[in-house]
Amino acid sequence: ARESIDLDVDLTERLIYWTDRTDESINRAPMDIPSGETPSTRTFEMIANVGSGAIGITLGDGDDLFYSRNVRPTLFRNTRDGTNETTLITGTIGNVFTGVEFIDFSEKY
């Protein structure tokens, strides 16, 4: 059984991204179900394995990045195809949060 914990959507590319604690992965799939598939038979792409239970994801705003967190706790940054993984924080954030959210502070409000 799958245990999806968090998700985000790319409305421009019409892709949904989500974490799965069961296989410790980040996955993505088209928002529109391909012809001949159903919600239960649709295919998806596993794009990253974050280890120790993937529990948070957010897409970067206006770039090709996503940020994810596992229960270890480690915060990662990847390009949206799952490559170029960078560890941003590890072992020091405790259990302060379970999800991840991206906020662009470059704009002045």
Can you put this structure into words, describing what you see?
The protein is mostly beta strands. Helix content is 0%, strand content 43%. The protein contains no helices and 8 strands. The strands form 2 sheets. A 4-stranded antiparallel sheet has the order 1-2-3-4, with no helix packed on it. It has a 4-stranded antiparallel sheet with strand order 5-6-7-8, with no helix packed on it. A hairpin with a 4-residue loop joins strand 2 (15-20) and strand 3 (25-30). The protein is globular and about 45 Å long.
Structural class: mainly beta
Mean pLDDT score: 84
Number of helices: 0
Order of helices and strands: EEEEEEEE
What share of residues is helical?
under 10%
Strand content: 35-45%
Give the strand line-up of the largest sheet. 1-2-3-4
Low-confidence stretches: none
Count of distinct strands:
8
Shape: globular
Instruction: Tell me about the largest β-sheet.
Output: 4 strands, antiparallel
Rg, please? 14 Å
How far apart the termini lie comes to 44 Å
Task: Write the SSE topology.
Layout lengths: L3 E7 L4 E6 L4 E6 L14 E5 L4 E6 L5 E6 L3 E6 L6 E5 L19
Antiparallel strand pairs: 1-2, 2-3, 3-4, 5-6, 6-7, 7-8
Summarize the structure.
The chain is built from no helices and eight strands. The chain is mostly beta strands and 109 residues long.
